[in-house]
């Protein structure tokens, strides 16, 4: 088994602003039906990434962590929406099913924080981003596409972000 997977993108962000810029580029590529999973401990940059994703999506709404409301919705001027689900307070996938994730993906794109808690309720075709805390201003990110749409998405993201 190869150690290097050419479909996986690894990146070290050196500031919250850089994380937001990466999110902006990713958000500009999202389409309704897309699923982005953000996994990592508290303070690793997941919500900061969502701030950039929402801006790149085209929303002017203020992004905040939906830990207590579970789902925030950010609107584009054309009416399309980006759903932001925080699964931290959910016990399992059964609780997530009550939120009607399928409907969220039909009406817009879906970004999930703490996806490992509800993984069984999520489509296996997705972009999974693993965040790790490296230092005060540094966060490691591993972007792993799962499915043809997400391989294309990460290829285009890499091209627009790093050239080539």
Provide an overview of this structure.
This protein has helices at residues 16-27, 46-57, 93-97, 101-107, 148-162, and strands at 9-13, 35-39, 71-75, 81-86, 108-113, 126-135, 138-146. The chain is 31% helix and 28% strand. The model has no long low-confidence stretch (mean pLDDT 89). It has a single domain (9-162), classed as P-loop containing nucleotide triphosphate hydrolases (Rossmann fold). It starts with 8 loop residues before the first strand and ends with a helix. It is built from 5 helices and 7 strands; from the N terminus they run βαβαββααβββα. It has a 7-stranded mixed sheet with strand order 1-7-6-2-5-4-3, with helices on both faces. Strand 3 and strand 4 form a beta hairpin. It has 164 residues and is of the alpha/beta class. 40% of the residues are buried. Helix 1 packs across helix 2.
Fold blueprint:
Layout: E1 9-13, H1 16-27, E2 35-39, H2 46-57, E3 71-75, E4 81-86, H3 93-97, H4 101-107, E5 108-113, E6 126-135, E7 138-146, H5 148-162
Parallel strand pairs: 2-5, 2-6, 4-5
Antiparallel strand pairs: 1-7, 3-4, 6-7
Helix pairs in contact: 1-2
Can you summarize this structure?
The protein is an alpha/beta fold.
Structural descriptors:
31% helix; Rossmann fold; 164 residues; alpha/beta; 7-stranded mixed sheet
């Amino acid at each position: 088994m190869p150690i290097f997977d050419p479909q996986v993108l690894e990146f070290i962000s050196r500031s919250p602003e850089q994380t937001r810029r990466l999110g902006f580029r990713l958000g500009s590529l999202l389409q309704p039906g897309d699923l982005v999973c953000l996994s990592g401990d508290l303070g690793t940059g997941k919500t900061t990434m969502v701030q950039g994703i929402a801006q790149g999506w085209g929303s002017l709404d203020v992004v905040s962590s939906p830990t207590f409301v579970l789902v925030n919705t950010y609107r584009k001027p054309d009416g399309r929406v980006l759903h932001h689900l925080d699964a931290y307070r959910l016990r399992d996938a059964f609780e997530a099913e009550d939120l009607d994730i399928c409907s969220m993906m039909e009406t817009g794109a879906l970004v999930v924080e703490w996806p490992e808690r509800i993984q069984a309720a999520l489509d296996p075709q997705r972009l999974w981003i693993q965040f790790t805390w490296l230092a005060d201003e540094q966060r490691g990110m591993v972007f792993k596409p799962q499915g043809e749409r997400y391989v294309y998405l990460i290829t285009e993201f890499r091209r627009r972000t790093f050239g080539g």
